[in-house]
Amino acid sequence: MFKNIYTTFATNFASALLNLLIAVVISQTLGAEVKGEQSIILTNIVIILLFNNIIGGATLVYIVPRYNNRKVMLYSYLWAFIICSGAFGVTRLFPGLNHELLIHTFILTFISALASANAMMLLGKEKILAKNLIHIMQIFSVAIFLLLSIFVFDIQNIYAYIHALYFGYGMSLAISLILLLKYWNAGEKVTEKTKKPLLAGMFRYGFYNQLAHITQMLSLRLSYYLLLIYYSNESVGIYSIAVAIIESVWLISKSIATVQYARITNSIDKVYNIRLTVKLLKSSLIFSILMILFLAILPASFFQFLFGEEFAPVKRIIVLLMPGILVYNFYLIPGHYFSGIGKYHINTIASAAGLIATLVFGLILIPLFDFYGAAIAATISFTATSLYTFWVLKKLSGFPLTYFLPGKADIREYSDFIKKIFSKDA
Asked: pTM of the full predicted structure?
């Protein structure tokens, strides 16, 4: 399992570097305004995918071992078409919107939805390496084509990024289809006493899971829209850079959570699942603290040099986000435990608490302090979400508070693990 965590982290780390390259290229060559447009386009795609993923998202990891995979894929694809077509139809009712950009947004969302469904099916079979390959190839393809669009084809606007997304998402879909063919006949690996019909099961699990993801996404990105309303694309662009950098702290946590989720969905051992979750939570905290300390020592001039003069406030925004980013580990790891055992409503309640905090404090602080207010609101939101999820896990496990915090033995164990990895690489 630790090998899967290590390879998933390596994939996420490489993806983060490529995303950083994308952010640097857009910021330096196209400016903060286009960076803001890019952030809004990506956020729109993610929001549509949230509704699409009621059928074709992360719940497939839970569904795949329990149901016929061919039907799972068919329903996921049909749902993706319905959601993207419906979203396009709804936006046609609003004449003030940029319909040309919206058409691209919906086509890209559909391609991404199909590739995502394929990747989640592979993850449900615990094919971690295959899922990681799809992810890294998508980001790599976007980065390469973006560079070609700007520096070879001389496209100096948002369409340089849109064309890169077409190439990257298309590559991801092609690779995922090829990899999935090898595991076409899998399914019903995990047996349960009671099991709902497939479509009902997909909707039931998907609805509760996506309700959590929708509220979580809104709590994470609602500030973008508030900044756009009260200020400008430039504010969104500057804030989005800080968010992208500080969220890199979650690289290890999300890598751990991905493997944890796949493992727990394929297990019915309750004691093993909860002990595994606590152990992985400690790991996540240790590595997150180290990454936060690294970001803390980087000077403000470093970010200004990397992204341009317009991005001078980035370091101060990062500092305001640090406490929330650290405490959010108490949601990421326990949240994937609850998803793995099918208790999605717990994550929904936690994410709703975070969304309420974002809305209330965002409306108060953003008009007063611009992106600094957004950062403070985000930290409060992360704390609200994490406190509820951790409280439920602690109550369920019966463990004392100190059991969840890493001690000397845990630090020594992970230090030895890292040394072992580097000694093998050497």
From this structure: 0.68
